[in-house]
């Protein structure tokens, strides 16, 4: 892509093509020979619904190749057919809204640590990577939710989370134009070595959980909140029957799937939420009116004594459902900066029909449902590049009212993201706990002076353009500064121990 940084995310290309060539329909082909198979771009909600809802095409094989070093080829993101239906049913209970509400105390504890670390940066007055902080926060949360484990990645080095972050740059789809990246000779060794350490860590963690569970049962103590894994194991026993178990209380099949799935949850669970948090803070720093309305809503629901906010959330967790403007900010951020797209395998005899009635055969194609292009397509979104949370609050019939199926950061249809409710819950909690205390502002100008480089530094005027790091993230780790939102906040240092 001419005129954009070399590391800019590939999902910018289809949208830029649509704007450069208005005669293009929102479904079109790109010939990438010899680097990749033909790509059928889908940048329209009616086209996306045909491959994700009406007929669900299988994942493109490169997606399985990308995740295989992490999951061993068995995870909800890549398995198909009856196997997917079975395991999705088994893991669904742990991600229900009612169950997630019971896990709010643990999410709050990790969020309070995040606030304490932001407070440290206020005192230092330094430039720091917000992405590093939000990544460790979301990894801590996903550890609690899925495994009932305290990774403490925000304050210390955790082997499992460190290995995951070490692995991500070594994952590849197999059709990268950079041949060194595609055929790096050390990649198979790195995959084997990191996967071995992660599997060993998780096997040990499952053993530890089994011991604690046995001790609690013998002592007649209640176990407390159940993790996603606990509920999945219970559902598995009900639906699959009993089988020979090992010291962890799991049979061999469930244990193998559990280890693979926990790693996938860690990858997907932190990737989406951390990047979205960075962009929420970024957009709010550029739109003070929206930040003001967000703070007003939080004060309306939780009162103006910020020391009471955490306690009120714990006592009245359903108050988090009374934040329409906060949800609008989250949804609008995900519209402008979606963390991922959908790659599907074309099928013989199946074509996508655009709004003019023209048909596009999918056989032999990588079918790319490009969320970024759909969600910034002016045919469906008035003022597509503007941050307008109000578009999520207007009534049907209003010009800003979203077109059905045009917002799909978690995808739609039967294979929508299992962690959608968890991601929205995390984002709400973090915003309620931080928005009235801190001002977080990008520090790209200072970063660029300290780290001079040549070439373009923006995409369509945006310095915090999206790059590939697993999913889509802000460039350069989103360097930023943080300050108190109000002078009197500095007196709240006793809220979280240092």
Please describe what this structure looks like.
The protein is globular, with a radius of gyration of 23 Å. Residues 488-498 have low confidence and may be disordered. Helix content is 49%, strand content 9%. It has 498 residues and is of the alpha+beta class. The protein has a 4-stranded mixed sheet with strand order 1-2-7-4. A 3-stranded antiparallel sheet has the order 3-11-8. Strands 5-6 form a two-stranded antiparallel sheet.
Keywords:
498 residues, alpha+beta, four-stranded mixed sheet, three-stranded antiparallel sheet
Order of helices and strands: HEEHHHHHEHHHHHHHHHEEEEHHEHEEE
Instruction: Walk across the major sheet and give the strand order.
Output: 1-2-7-4
The level of helicity is 40-55%
The termini sit apart by 46 Å
Mean pLDDT: 92
Number of strands: 11
Low-confidence stretches: 488-498
**Over all CA atoms, what is the radius of gyration?**
23 Å
Query: Largest sheet, if any?
Result: 4 strands, mixed
Question: How large a portion of the residues is in β-strands, by DSSP E?
Answer: 5-15%
Judged by helices, strands and strand pairing, the structural class is alpha+beta
Write the layout of secondary structure elements.
Elements: H1 12-20, E1 27-30, E2 39-42, H2 45-54, H3 61-71, H4 81-91, H5 97-102, H6 104-124, E3 128-129, H7 130-147, H8 159-167, H9 179-182, H10 187-219, H11 228-240, H12 252-286, H13 288-302, H14 309-315, H15 324-336, E4 342-345, E5 351-353, E6 359-361, E7 366-369, H16 371-375, H17 420-434, E8 438-442, H18 444-450, E9 466-469, E10 471-474, E11 479-484
Parallel strand pairs: 2-7
Antiparallel strand pairs: 1-2, 3-11, 4-7, 5-6, 8-11, 9-10
Helix pairs in contact: 6-7, 6-17, 7-12, 8-10, 10-12, 12-15, 12-17
